[in-house]
Every structure is written in structure tokens, then in C-alpha cells.
């Protein structure tokens, strides 16, 4: 949600990819792709954003904390980031999502958005369940 220099962003993508491969992820056994090259993420985020009310986003603790660290000037990107996260989850019809405690509320938002969408348009998205680790 913060602007990055293009060269730094490109290097970060390469570094992250190298780290994923170093962890043992085998690209012959799973899909490894650059999410920013999949326009459906942003397209679904737009649709889901039209179903999400602003007061709900304003209540999320991450918004409050990051906004405070930005001298009370949070960006629209920061405010709507949880909707993009929901799109990332729902686009692939995920049923279970590994999350840390700090992301539980964002997953709950994704669950609520999926339920709202399904109620309005018919059963389409599974309601994702969290996988919480004690580590």
C-alpha cells in the first residue's frame, strides 16, 4: 500500500521468489505466479468493494494502527487492502486459509463478503475457514 521504486519492486519480486524456492516449494508440484499479472484479482476486488461498507473497513484495527503511523492520513489503498485480500482468497474458491492471529479479522471480512455475495447472487464462493498455527 506504499509506493515503491520500480527497480526496488522488481528486485523484491525476485528475492521473494528465490526465498520461496529456497524453502523447498517445487514449481513442478504447485503453481508459482506473479499475482500482479493476474487482472482478475483487481477486478474481483472492485466487485467485492462495491459490496463492502466503509464503516466496516474503518473499524479494522490494522487500518487504525497504520493510519495513526501515517499522521492520520491513510490512503484508499490502505483502507481497501482487506477487500483485495478477500479477493485473493475468494478468486481461487479457497476453503481453508492459513492465517496469523493478526489477520483473523481480515479473514472474517472475507467470510462475510463471501456470505453476502452468495446471499445476493446464489451460492458461488465457499466461506473460507482459518487454519491457525500455535507457532
Structural description of this entry:
By secondary structure, the protein is mainly alpha-helical. It folds into 2 domains: about 30 residues; about 100 residues, Rossmann fold (3-Layer(aba) Sandwich). The chain has 6 helices and 2 strands; from the N terminus they run H-H-H-H-H-E-H-E. The chain has a two-stranded parallel ribbon with strand order 1-2. The longest helix is centred in the last third of the chain and has 18 residues. The chain is globular, with a radius of gyration of 16 Å.
Describe the structure concisely for a colleague:
This protein is mainly alpha-helical. It is about 55% helix and about 5% strand.
Give the overall shape, derived from the CA principal axes: globular
Structural class: mainly alpha
Q: What are the secondary-structure elements, in order, as H or E?
A: HHHHHEHE
Question: Which bin fits the share of residues in helices?
Answer: 55-70%
Count of discrete alpha- or pi-helical segments spanning 4 or more residues: 6
Strand order of the largest sheet: 1-2
CATH superfamily of the largest domain: HUPs
Largest sheet: 2 strands, parallel
User: For the terminal residues, how far apart are their CA atoms?
Assistant: 27 Å
Give the amount of beta strand, in percent: 5-15%
Number of strands: 2
- Named CATH architecture of the largest domain: 3-Layer(aba) Sandwich
| Rg, nearest Å | 16 Å
Low-confidence stretches: none
> What is the mean pLDDT?
91
Number of domains: 2
- Under the CATH scheme, which class of the largest domain? Alpha Beta
As for the CATH topology of the largest domain, it is Rossmann fold
GO cellular component, one term: mitochondrial matrix
EC number: 6.1.1.2
Pfam family, one: tRNA-synt_1b
Keywords: Aminoacyl-tRNA synthetase, ATP-binding, Ligase, Nucleotide-binding, Protein biosynthesis
Amino acid at each position: 500500500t506504499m509506493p515503491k521504486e520500480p527497480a526496488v519492486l522488481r528486485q523484491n519480486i525476485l528475492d521473494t521468489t528465490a526465498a520461496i524456492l529456497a524453502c523447498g516449494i517445487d514449481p513442478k508440484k504447485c503453481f508459482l505466479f506473479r499475482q500482479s499479472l493476474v487482472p482478475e484479482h483487481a477486478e474481483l476486488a472492485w466487485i467485492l468493494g462495491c459490496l463492502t461498507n466503509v464503516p466496516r473497513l474503518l473499524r479494522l484495527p490494522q487500518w487504525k494502527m497504520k493510519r495513526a503511523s501515517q499522521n492520520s492520513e491513510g490512503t484508499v489503498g490502505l483502507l481497501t487492502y482487506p477487500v483485495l485480500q478477500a479477493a485473493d482468497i475468494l478468486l481461487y474458491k479457497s476453503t481453508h486459509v492459513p492465517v496469523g492471529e493478526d489477520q483473523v479479522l481480515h479473514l472474517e471480512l472475507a467470510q462475510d463478503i463471501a456470505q453476502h455475495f452468495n446471499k445476493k447472487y446464489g451460492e458461488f464462493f465457499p466461506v473460507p475457514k482459518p487454519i491457525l498455527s500455535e507457532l
